[in-house]
Amino acid sequence: MAETLTSTYGPWGIVAGGSDGIGAAFAHAMASRGMNVVLVARRVPVLEASAADIRARYGVEVRTVPLDLSTPGALSALERAASDLEVGLFVYNAGGDDRSTAFLDKDLDTHLQLVHRNCAAVLEAAYRFGAPMVARKRGAMVLVTSGAAWAGGATRAAYGATKAFDLILAESLWAEWRTCGVDVLGLVLGRTDTPSLRRALDGGAGPLGQLADPNDVAEEALDHLADGPTWIYGSDAPTGGSPFGGLNRRDAVLAMSRGTSAHTATEVPSTER
Ligand SMILES: NC(=O)c1ccc[n+]([C@@H]2O[C@H](COP(=O)([O-])OP(=O)(O)OC[C@H]3O[C@@H](n4cnc5c(N)ncnc54)[C@H](OP(=O)(O)O)[C@@H]3O)[C@@H](O)[C@H]2O)c1
Fold first, then answer.
1. Which CATH number is correct for 2-262, 3.20.20.70, 3.40.50.720, 3.40.1190.20, 3.30.70.260?
2. Looking at the whole model, is its pTM more than 0.85?
3. For 137-178, what is each residue's pLDDT tens digit?
4. Mutate which of 47, 185, 189 to test ligand 1's pocket (most atoms within 8 Å of Cβ)?
5. Sheet architecture: strand order including 36-41
């Protein structure tokens, strides 16, 4: 298995948002399969600790690039930082919403930063790192999205909209690059046990409910890189469509809104966050 990931895609992988949670799980899973990794995140001590752990456990090379993906110029800086590497797998993971709240209760700059990190920067990553993959005729991209992409809902206007962008971007690139030797996977997640989710739910938002294990998520995604365009972790039909498929849009939005205001996983599909 260790040879398969690198011989199929190449020697290096990048995880944008790779220092904790699902991104760190991806980095561990990639390194355990022999891939060298570039990790991107903002908090340098967390980033360096995660990198040191991966080096010690798997003996691969790890490069750290401290960046804020919500700022313009971050992806060109990342491209420069990795310009000497053959990057065969790019996982765009960073994308969580640190606070689910009514649209007008967040300041506009916070919304715009989320949109930049979750949309513009993802598109830029696909453009800058996808082009060499297409030229080499090998590579893979994982864009991590969410059940929030399936329908709108109260308290998730910007977040859900960005995750729908990521889903459509991944599916469209899959359609374009499938004949070029480049696998693209839109990875749809439900509630997963990460520091980011725990921070977001902190403050009496109710029980956590059933949470996916980030390590299981990462391993399963790596096993299914070639099974795009979409992989719905935890679904009985992971390559299937929206769990809201049978509902009209109004009912889907109301169901999603009930789930978000209650902060429970019981009223909404398991893929929703
Ligand atoms: N956890 C869930 O329940 C859940 C459910 C559905 C979908 N998802 C999706 O899964 C992905 C990962 O979620 P997560 O819960 O692990 O939390 P996350 O906050 O999206 O990701 C955490 C990682 O991203 C880094 N990061 C966050 N913002 C960044 C920025 N502006 N620039 C650079 N790095 C940044 C964090 O390090 P720093 O903070 O140090 O920068 C950390 O390494 C997201 O795309 C989210 O939408 C998660």
1. 3.40.50.720
2. yes
3. 999 999 999 999 999 999 999 999 999 999 999 999 999 999
4. 189
5. 62-66, 36-41, 12-16, 87-92, 139-146, 182-189, 230-232
